Amino acid sequence: MTELVIRPLTAGETPLFASLPDPGIVGRAVLGDTYGMVADGGQYRPEWTWVALRDGVVVARAAWWAKPGDERPIALDWFDFTDAEAAVQLLRSAPLQAEYSLLLPPGWREQPDVRAEAEARMAAAEAAGLRKLVERYRYTWTSHCPLPERTGRLEYRPEPDDDVIRGVLRRIQEDSLDAHDLHDIEEYGRAGAVEELLGILTWMPSPRDWWRLAYTPAGEVAGIHVPARNPSGPCIGYIGVLPEQRGHGYAYDLLVECTQDLVARGATRIAAATDQENFPMAAHFATAGYPVSEERIDFV
Which band of pLDDT confidence, cut at 50, 70 and 90, is reported for residue 2? Predict the structure, then answer.
């Protein structure tokens, strides 16, 4: 077999990346995205975009992403191939590490062609050393969807003290159903997991003063919601309910309030996500009128 060449792209090699034959039915193509370098108005850096070639032909490709100014990638966005062995070697060879989120259309397991493409990527990612963490639903609320009405059960106040926020987040992570919370606690400890979450929330370009703590009529903290913007647009940044306040459906109240806040700030499209096994939160999204737009499988 011809020797495999694995290397990063250089400026101007976007056509080389795009030359890989790909049906475009899984991954970033599900969102309608196309690859583009920062220099050309896109989101990707050539040094974080790698290809595997045989006889000059691309047989595998991968592109990692971070927002401008970040020193290391935070996501593996593109991972496609016609040669699975080459794809595994590419991920092992590239000196880059980040979570890989495989994007899929809803009901992908019932679509044989999509399922085949998905399972090939999952197998290659795991062979390269990544571990499947969780399957998630991605939601997209738009102005064509009904706007859920506030329940009026909770009062929302800003909280400028990060130490207070840290305490609330730490309590929320107790007995959390969220796979990323559990992974971070195992990886970094409870205090480190809080810092990891706080780092993600403050990394978002939306203002810190949008965050709100929620209080019961008795004045007790019930939870927190973070209306946010990520680099792609408005999103439900975070919703969490304290352990002692669970069982009252307050996560729905927080979701509605977060949605209302974003709409009041001009949002006509809001992205969100939850673990598929978090049945209560998935039910809240459905009740609030958030349709499932994609499914997602996260690898760490």
Answer: confident
Q: What is the pLDDT of residues 23-56, one digit of tens each?
A: 999 999 999 999 999 999 999 999 999 999 999 9
CA distance 151 to 250: 10
Residue 75 near residue 100, CB atoms below 8 Å: yes
User: For 215, how many CA atoms within 13 A lie in the half-sphere containing its CB?
Assistant: 9
Handedness of CA 69, 173, 256, 298 (dihedral sign): positive
How many Å from the N-terminal Cα to the C-terminal Cα in the chain? 31
Tokens of 289: 């009128």
Q: List, as own/partner pairs, every contact residues 10-19 make where C-beta atoms lie below 8 angstroms and the sequence separation is at least 24, other chains included.
A: 10/46, 11/37, 11/39, 11/46, 13/46, 14/40, 14/42, 16/51, 16/58, 17/49, 17/51, 17/58, 17/61, 17/63, 19/57, 19/58
Phi, psi for 277 (deg, rounded to 5): -85, -5
DSSP assignment string, 44-110: B-GGGEEEEEETTEEEEEEEEE--TT-SS--EEEEEEES-HHHHHHHHHHSS---EEEEEE-TTGGG
Token pair for 55: 């006889």
User: One-letter amino acid identity for 168?
Assistant: V
Task: Identify the bridge partners of residue 293 per DSSP, sorted by sequence position.
Answer: none
What would the DSSP string read from start to end of 270-289? EEEEEETT-HHHHHHHHHTT
Q: What is the pTM (predicted TM-score) of this model? A: 0.95
Helical H runs in 84-228?
A: 84-93, 112-127, 162-172, 179-203
Contact assessment for residue 98 and residue 90, using Cβ atoms and an 8 Å cutoff: no
* Cβ(270)–Cβ(140) below 8 Å: yes
Q: What is the DSSP letter of 37?
A: B
Q: How far is CA 269 from CA 175, 238, 260, in A?
A: 31, 16, 12
**CB-based contacts of 59, cutoff 8 Å, min separation 6:** 4, 20, 52, 53, 81, 82, 83, 86, 87
